[in-house]
TrEMBL record:
Source lineage: Bacteria, Bacillati, Actinomycetota, Actinomycetes, Kitasatosporales
One of the Pfam families matching this protein, by short name: Aldo_ket_red
Stated name of the protein: Aryl-alcohol dehydrogenase-like predicted oxidoreductase
InterPro entries attached to this UniProt entry: K_chnl_volt-dep_bsu_KCNAB-rel, NAD(P)_OxRdtase_dom_sf, NADP_OxRdtase_dom
UniProt key word Oxidoreductase: yes
Limits of the NADP-dependent oxidoreductase domain: 16-313
Record keywords, A-Z: NADP, Oxidoreductase
A GO MF label: oxidoreductase activity
Top-level taxon in the UniProt lineage: Bacteria
Family: Belongs to the shaker potassium channel beta subunit family.
Record-level GO BP terms: methylglyoxal catabolic process
Length: 338
């Protein structure tokens, strides 16, 4: 396993992280989750990403059980707060009340005394940013998290949050955006702002929900048991990629990968990890062998000719609209009352 600093912080993370959103949000068994975590540990992965909302809070419990008995100091465990975890009007968002209650509930479910990074899962326009950042700072000052991070915030939101964090003497060290060879939205505004501020990227969906593995072929039925056929497995996130134009372009990457002795998944992960702002890429898995195979992308160097060939192959299907980041969070300050 290779390791990098998380931004300009002192925290070191594995270049590949294991995330259990899809593993635990699907109908897969607890045994599958345990096997995937074990495969991650065997591959040298030390960074584990989850969230309180995944699988209706069950994902944190499952990850905690899977990591039980591991040396806590040798792991970097990340979780998130924002999305609804109960029926009440204060069971969501980034209010002081929700943050303070959510960190205690997350630690209970994980069976841990602290998390390494506590992340604001989206931006909350219904709560003053000062309230949110003060509450997150209190989580750090109380010893329940070492660092704070954000997920899918815009460049402006990150700048404002970072400035407040400095005033409160806590480290906002990470941003977690969607990022892949097909989804390059963060490159436009978010990554440059984070580079300036010393914030590292913990990227999710580096394989574009599995599309960049090449298993979905244009004009053919989706493979049985794949994410595209499982309504409990985040298939709605995958749907926009499942067009003949996108899938056809992805198939043009095959000879590029073959010339390098790589699978499409390994090529796509190497493409993400070549960015100096990326500290770690979060991998999901439906089978433990996927983690073992994907770890072979580590240490692969893609030269300018290969990068140019990837750009030419994907061409017009690459997403670069910076406005897409803002669209991932609520925009109406009254959204929690709706």
């Amino acid at each position: 396993m290779n390791f990098r600093h998380l931004g300009r912080s002192g925290l070191i993370v594995s270049q590949l992280a294991y995330g259990n959103w899809l593993t635990q949000s699907s109908s897969r068994s607890e045994e599958t989750e345990l096997a995937c975590v074990r495969a991650a540990l065997d591959a040298g992965i030390t960074t584990f990403d989850t969230a309180d909302v995944y699988a209706d809070t069950r994902a944190e419990e499952s990850l905690g059980r899977a990591l039980k008995g591991e040396r806590r100091e040798g792991l970097e465990v990340l979780t998130k707060v924002f999305a609804p975890t109960g029926p009440g009007h204060n069971d969501l968002g980034l209010s002081r009340k929700h943050i303070r209650e959510s960190i205690d509930n997350s630690l209970r479910r994980l069976g841990m005394d602290y998390v390494d990074v506590y992340q604001a899962h989206r931006f909350d326009p219904s709560t003053p940013l000062e309230e949110t950042m003060t509450a997150l700072a209190d989580v750090v000052h109380s010893g329940k998290a070492h660092y704070i991070g954000v997920c899918e915030w815009t460049a402006d939101q990150i700048r404002r949050g970072h400035a407040l964090a400095r005033e409160l003497k806590v480290s906002l060290v990470s941003n977690q955006p969607q990022y892949s060879a097909l989804w390059r939205v963060p490159e436009v505004e978010v990554m440059p702002a984070c580079e300036e501020l010393g914030i590292g990227q913990i990227v999710w969906s580096p394989l574009a929900q599995g599309v960049l593995t090449g298993k979905y072929l244009p004009g053919e039925q989706w493979p049985e048991g794949s994410r595209a056929t499982d309504s409990n497995d985040g298939s709605e996130v995958l749907t926009p990629w499942l067009t003949d134009e996108v899938l056809g372009r992805v198939q043009q990457l095959r000879p590029i990968a073959a010339d390098l002795g790589l699978s499409l998944a390994q090529l796509s992960l190497a493409w993400v990890l070549r960015h100096p702002g990326v500290s770690t890429a979060v991998l999901g898995a439906s089978r433990p062998e996927q983690i073992t195979d994907n770890a072979k992308a580590l240490g692969v160097t893609l030269d300018a000719e290969v990068l140019g060939a990837i750009d030419a192959a994907l061409g017009p299907v690459v997403s670069r609209d910076a406005a897409a980041t803002a669209q991932s969070s609520p925009t109406d300050p009254a959204w929690r009352l709706a």
